[in-house]
Amino acid sequence: MQNRDGKVKAGDVVVEMRKVTKRFPGGVVANDHVDLEIRAGQVHTILGENGAGKSTLMNILYGLYQPDEGEIRVEGRKVTLRSPKDAIDLGIGMVHQQFMLIPTLSVAENIVLVDRSSRGLLLDLNRVEKQITELSTKLGLRVDPKAKVGQLAAGEKQRVEIIKALYCGARILILDEPTSVLTPPEVRDLAITLERLTKEGLAVVAFITHKLPEVMEMSDRVTVLRRGRLVGTVETKSVNQKDLTKMMVGRETLLQLERLEGKKGNAVLEVKDLSAIGDKGLPALKKVSFSIREGEILGIAGVAGNGQRELEEVLMGLRKAVGGRVFIHGEDMTNSQPEKIIAGGVGYIPEDRTKRGVVPDASIAENLSLKICSEPPFAYNWFLPFRARWFLNEHEIGKYVDGLIQEYDIITPSKNAATRNLSGGNLQRLILARELSRHPALIVAAQPTGGLDIGATEFIRNKLVEAKAEGAAVLLISEDLDEVMSTSDRIAVIYGGEIVGIVAATEAKIETIGAMMAGVERMQAS
Amino acid sequence: MPILKQSDLTTVLTLVALVLGLFIVSLVAISLFMNIDLGKVFYHVYESTVGTEFGFLSVLRRTTYLLIVSLGLAVAFSSGVWNIGGEGQILWGAILAAAVALLVALPPLAVLPLALGASFLAGALWGLIAGFLKAKWNVNEIVSTMMLNFVATATMTQIAGGPLRDPVVLIAQTKMIPEELQLPFMVYPLNTAFLFALALVPVAYVLMHKSVLGYKMRIVGGGSSVAAAAGINTGRMVMISMFVSGGICALAGSMLVFGHFFRAQAAMTGLFGFYAIVSTLLGKSKPELMFFTSLLLSFIITGTESLRVLGVPGSFTQLVVGLMFVAAVLREFSSRRIK
Amino acid sequence: MELLIPILEMSPVFSLAAFGQLLGQKSGVYDLGVEGTMTTGAVFGVLGAYMGLNSWGCLLMGALVGIPFGAAMFFVSEKLKLNQIVVGFGLWLMGLGLAGSIYTVLLAPQHIKIEAVGAVAFGLDPIFYLSIGLLVFLIFLFARTKYGLIVTAVGENPRVADTAGINVEKVRAICLVVGSALAGLAGSYVAVDVVQGFTYTMIAGYGWMAFALVIFGRWKPIYVFAGSLLFVAITGISARLEILGMGFLPPNYVAVLPYIGVLVVLTLAMIFAKETGMPAGLGQPYTK
């Protein structure tokens, strides 16, 4: 890691983004005329909820996206970043959430891959290892150059990524949600690392996060984005968490969907101390407990990556729970097979529609019949003289499918058309139709309106509320805070794999929820 | 629900055009390479396939076996399992068919169904090995089925050269099966095996498109995460799929014994186990299309084989079929489809 | 023991082809056409003699014909992103067909005399020493050079390699072409040095064995080499067992022991080993 010529002093502006705008197809304005100044020797945080535009902005800085409007200046000079290569040449490095490392190779080997100076034939791993050790001691980044990356903990892998970026000459380091994969002690280590980095050689650090305590602890300045727009940039020491929450979330009025009151009955789903491990080997759910009654919608609010996906999977039997219990109608369904769980009366609206929700190559009719295919009258004995459920009763299935298409307003030329051609909204209607028409006692809906237009969104929310009114228990996992607040009866906030609070919707205040989502507040167990 | 859909027909026609195009190109190439008059080449191909009654019947005869194997492979492919073990499964079917035919002393009407049943079972179990390995431990089925092919060939050589051996000849082949068990000819050289193959088409169709089981298998083939999330036991489906697929391919083996060779030996498959992959892929694993794609492939093979009299080597057939794989794969290029 | 020399002598047939496959697989691409490439290589070896080349020329012919095979494999599976398995099969059949055709038409009628290169040291052929050299080279490549690291990276995770600035396509193309050239050389080796001729059934499954050898050897050059010695021993040994009176082991089965071996090893690997050594990106074409 070198200083170009030592001219840059702490406090100097090294990166300027002016009126940067990025639009995506579908009318989404991810960044709306955002201004940003990053100064040397400082840790600068970008704060915001989901969809605020944090990652997009940083991806633009790293050359992964090109802005539609606006300009970027690095060390005073206007630049165009067409690809990460351009960014790296300018001294901008990025550590993604998804580590770009090869697990079967050692740390040194991974770094050699990006090392531009070693053009020679022979691998001089010793030299590289030495350099790594030097860097790591200087910066307090504990890394064992000989270790195989696959065996490293997330925190160590992150350090490797940082070193990798520094190796390529980064003086401006972008870290994308760096703490999402770290344990608390690792977070503290990261804080120390950042301190050293900023002191040493004036590396500038930009930091994307939604976790307020970290922002307060680690950053010098904070930029808050909301729905693509810049809310403001402040010095961390001049604000407190409440101020930041307000900036992050700050809405006074909220649309309240007409609440159909359901008759609340017995508990359908009871989750007690549920724990699970995420893909990276870290705990993703930590003793999560809640329950949902008949005729009630429990919304799980939270920023993406706090355990929602794992919760969805564990409840549906797609991921192993390592602790705690799940009871459906009083029956212990922890770690049961999905077949059993579904048979127990659970409807599933997955977050990943195209991978988990439908078979893209099958017809609409075939996708709609996924759940009913084994049951009479849809399965029957056709010509066999004995009673059997071996064959598909196309007549009955056809009637059933037609009914669903009509009721759920699925727009398609025919029920035999391929599913892959459906728009997102229609796809979700299909999934909803398939699941809700079975009148399940429990509905697990994960990000049900993600990426959908207003019409589809409203339709789906209404359907869920209807289901609730008919007595279903609904678990609504959503990153859209508005949705959670307007649709749910009770709201639970998930943060870092834990439920940090459950409130009744009528009593919930958006600042409180926002604060819980950002890790600032925590309620006593309810 | 119409059996042959509009979009299918267009795709198949495009493919037919592609396939025939490649075929003509290879014919031109061979005529240039070997300095044979192109007209002669075309004439022979024509005469041996559609120009004469005998030719056309030969094409149909070959279609018989290709069709059976294609149907078998279609079952596997549609569940997302690459069954490359057709050769081995055919051989097992042949082994059991020959064994029953030679060893069981019962009237023909009893022996035939018994032999077919045994054949099916043998091939099914053989396929199940690979299916089980995939379901339980995610062992790559391409490698496992291919390896099993070799083991099956060794078994056939062993048995044909051993217990069931025909003492008269030097090569490893079984004795001839009794005359009363040999399938009668409809019109020489076409025998009743053809009808058997045709009869299998609706059976396969019903299995794959009308039964609950077939539906579940296709869902698994379409994306196993959906299947799992929908509550289908994907491992079980994979095993059942390989079981059925292996069994059907084995039936081709038994038909080869009863209808063509009247004995069993290791070289009897004629590489159908591999060739049929082309017709299955060309037909998108749809049973209703298998007859046509098998017919097409048979036409090409028969036509190419007929060129032997002109001095064209038998290996040329492999070259042409290899080229057809390209056609099959180009179809995937145009429409992203699963196996 | 006197069995050693014949085993070593035959080993390049497997080891050369297997090393080629290893290279391709390490970079993430299956080459299922290897059997076809070997057969065509064999025919071209004889073709070389027909054309009047000396032994080395014939061997070279085999290697050269491997190049278009590798290029075709690369083009269709990486550029067109078509199914590697089907393409491989197609190339296999085409290779077989091409080889057989060329032989029947051009070569069989002629009486072609091929001279083996002949033993150089310890009664072993220079090609054998080449294979040893290749073994050493590969071990060195993957253990100590940046290129080996690049190949490994491309095979494990092409996306990561791409972000590191590596040209994934170029790496895969080179590996496939070199790999196929080696397969072709293995084929011509059989024709020139071992059999001094060509028969249709010459490369009976050796290509598949080479393919399987890579898996059997857990993608490590030294194990692949050891495996090739083992496979030679097994395929050659069946004849001898009968003679030695150990006929209880059906000779046909002894011949397929390698295949059973692959199956067993692969299964055990999938059950137990967390680290199979298999390149994680094997079989997937890379899309940016």
Share of helix of chain B, binned: over 70%
CATH class term of the largest domain in chain A: Alpha Beta
Total count of strands of chain B: 2
Strand order in the sheet with the most strands of chain A: 6-7-8-3-9-10
What is the helix tally of chain A? 17
Helix content of chain A: 25-40%
Overall form of chain A: globular
CATH homologous superfamily descriptor of the largest domain in chain A = P-loop containing nucleotide triphosphate hydrolases
Which features does this protein show?
heterotrimer, B: 339 residues, mainly alpha, ABC transporter involved in vitamin B12 uptake, BtuC, two-stranded antiparallel sheet, globular, C: 288 residues, 11 helices, 72% helix
Structure, briefly:
The complex is a heterotrimer of chains A (526), B (339) and C (288). Chain A has 526 residues and is an alpha/beta fold. In chain A, 31% of the residues lie in helices and 26% in strands.
Describe the structure.
The complex is a heterotrimer of chains A (526), B (339) and C (288). Chain A has 526 residues and is α/β, with parallel strands linked by helices. Chain A folds into two domains: 13-249, Rossmann fold, CATH 3.40.50; 267-345 and 440-517, Rossmann fold (3-Layer(aba) Sandwich). In chain A, 31% of the residues lie in helices and 26% in strands. In chain A, the strands form five sheets. In chain A, strands 6-7-8-3-9-10 form a six-stranded mixed sheet, with helices on both faces. A six-stranded mixed sheet of chain A has the order 16-19-20-13-21-22, with helices on both faces. Chain A has a four-stranded antiparallel sheet with strand order 2-1-4-5, covered by helices on one side. In chain A, strand 7 (172-176), helix 6 (184-199) and strand 8 form a beta-alpha-beta unit. In chain A, helix 3 packs across helix 4, helix 3 runs parallel beside helix 5 and helix 8 (241-249) packs across helix 17. Chain A starts with 12 loop residues before the first strand and ends in a 9-residue tail after the last helix. Chain B is mostly helical and 339 residues long. Chain B is 74% helix and 1% strand. In chain B, strand 1 and strand 2 form a beta hairpin. Chain B has helices spanning 6-33, 38-51, 53-78, 86-103, 108-137, 141-160, 193-210, 212-222, 224-229, 234-261, 272-282, 287-306, 315-334; strands spanning 185-187, 190-191. Chain B has one domain: Orthogonal Bundle (ABC transporter involved in vitamin B12 uptake, BtuC). The N and C termini of chain C lie far apart (54 Å). In chain C, 56% of the residues are buried. Chain C is mostly helical and 288 residues long. Chain C has one domain (4-205). Chain C has helices at residues 4-26, 34-50, 55-79, 84-107, 126-144, 146-156, 158-163, 168-195, 206-216, 221-243, 251-271. Chains A and C meet through helix 3 of A and helix 6 and helix 7 of C.
